[in-house]
Amino acid sequence: MIIFHSTGVWQCAARESAHIILRNRLLPGFRSLLSPSSTFAIRQGQSTALRSPVSCFNINICHRSVQLGAHQSTTPVCNLHNFVHTELPTGKIMSGTFALTSDEFFDFEVLRLLSSVRYGGADVGEILKTAALLKPGDFESYHDAFKNTALRINKQADAINTDKNPISARDSYFRVSTYYRAAEFFIHGQPNDPRIRPLWDQQMTCFNKAIALLPQPGERLLLKGSDFDIPAIFYPAAQGATTTPKPTIILGNGFDGSQEELLHAFGFAALERGYNVMTYEGPGQPTVRQRQGLGFIHDWERVVSPVVDHLFARPEVDSKRVALFGLSMGGYLSVRAAAFEPRIAATIAVDGVDDVSAAFCHMLPPAAKVLYEAGENDQVNKFVEELFASGKAPTALRWGVEHGIYSFAAESPTDFLNRTKLMTLAGITDKIKRPVLICEASNDRFFEGQPARVKESLGDLGTYVILTDEDAASLHCHVGAFTFANQNVFDRLEDALSS
Asked: Where is the AB hydrolase-1 domain (predicted)?
């Protein structure tokens, strides 16, 4: 690539492209090239004025070396600590839906909360009224709005006579629990934030009150893993006129979700269809991260096998019909576990994930991704720190990095990314001997393209289903369309377990 300058020619050898936006005042070497009122698009062999106060370059990296006139440097050209801003991912994850807030990631999370309305996890008016108080990119506003809603409804729930009005109390406590979880969701930027544990304790207290009032009460469990405990909840299927063992589905969440959320998303749908339901959490997931201080592990069979051990000892469970379900990043966790746990009769990945590291690296700004792949961890960490301090980071990027550091018990952005590298299905799927349902959302921006690769690696054992805009089911995990997603999951699971 040739960069033309009024005083001569600067040359950069070309290999990998990184799109970078540079502010004139922060790049002394290019200062005479730029003016406050114009932007030059530098391409190979040309220069074009674009009339913008910000300057865009296609800067190419080659063997971590760049030549500027008579000066040679072995440092990557993307020396990000000199830059205020890069061409950042927009975080856009919505498609063809009515915006509930102007912040696109907040919008997705609000829609996620609304998805729990179908099975009593929230109420529409409460969510919309709370969402109106959110300020784009302001994590504190999200915390404050949902905590205040939770406190208000918690007070109402506590005033209900549970002996006289158990259904009203149960429904209120379920909603309160959801809103406490929402209040806690965006405050992981400081892993030791003193608000995290009390909010989680409050959501668990309310959830426990609610599941105790179910027709078939849920049972809290603490199972023993190899070197950690596994919190779980068992929900028995309605026995009706028969006490014969029932099929059972184990529901696991992913990067940021809780086992309590899963009851409203897929658990009640399973109970309606005659399944026992077991939810659980492992290292990195909310309760284990908070109470045991443990971050995510890649070998998820260490979590799932003790859950299966417990279920096989229960008389309510048909041991030949135990299925494993994973949501979001749980699509990796569940398939990984199934490869090493032969007692699982069928696995469901909503949606399929074959390379967790690739997904999280993809969320980095292009220039930061180039540096990370070049091993320049210190520069990447400094860039992320300064970007977040500038207030210019998209909500999805800031939250993703902050929660990644928190949930993986990592020390820095690159430490978090490095820990995800073991989370791959490469060389593992050939160990799976039972059917796997792999779902894909056509507009997923998190694990885009990965479900199809999981299907390809599984061959005939994989059933691939793509849900689209036509059924309003195209977003990540089919948020906003859980009824339709449950239809697709359980109709196919019934066929798999019957065969």
From this structure: 264-449
Paired sense of beta strands 71-73 and 219-224, if any: unpaired
Within this chain, do residues 38 and 159 fall inside the same structural domain, yes or no? no
The whole-chain average pLDDT of the chain stands at: 84
Residue given tokens 């792999």 in the structure block: 438
Task: Check: CB of residue 399 under 8 Å from CB of residue 137.
Answer: no
**Domain carrying residue 54:** 2-77
> Are the C-beta atoms of 297 and 283 separated by less than 8 Å?
yes
Prediction pTM value: 0.83
Q: Which two tokens stand for residue 263?
A: 């009851």
Judged by DSSP in three states, 53 sits in coil
- What's the confidence (pLDDT) of residue 97? 61
- d(CA 390, CA 285) in angstroms, rounded, equals 29
What's the CA gap between 341 and 303, in Å, rounded?
Answer: 11
Distance CA(65)–CA(346), nearest Å, equals 51
Q: How many helical (H) and strand (E) elements, i.e. helices and strands, does the chain have?
A: 17, 16
Q: Which of 179, 213, 247 is the last residue of a domain?
A: 213
Query: What is the rounded CA–CA span in Å between residue 255 and residue 483?
Result: 22
pLDDT digits (tens, 9 = 90+) for 105-136: 999 999 999 999 999 999 999 999 999 999 99
Is residue 157 domain-shared with residue 270, that is, in the same domain?
no
What is the C-alpha separation between 185 and 179, in angstroms, rounded? 10
Contact (CB, 8 A) for 435 and 459: no
Which H helix or E strand runs over 387?
Answer: helix 377-390
Rounded to an integer, what distance in angstroms lies between the CA atom of residue 140 and that of residue 135?
A: 9
| Entry field: residues in the chain | 499
Is 170 in the same domain as 29?
Answer: no
Query: Which tokens hold the place of 212?
Result: 């105790």
Contact 104, 134 (CB under 8 A): no
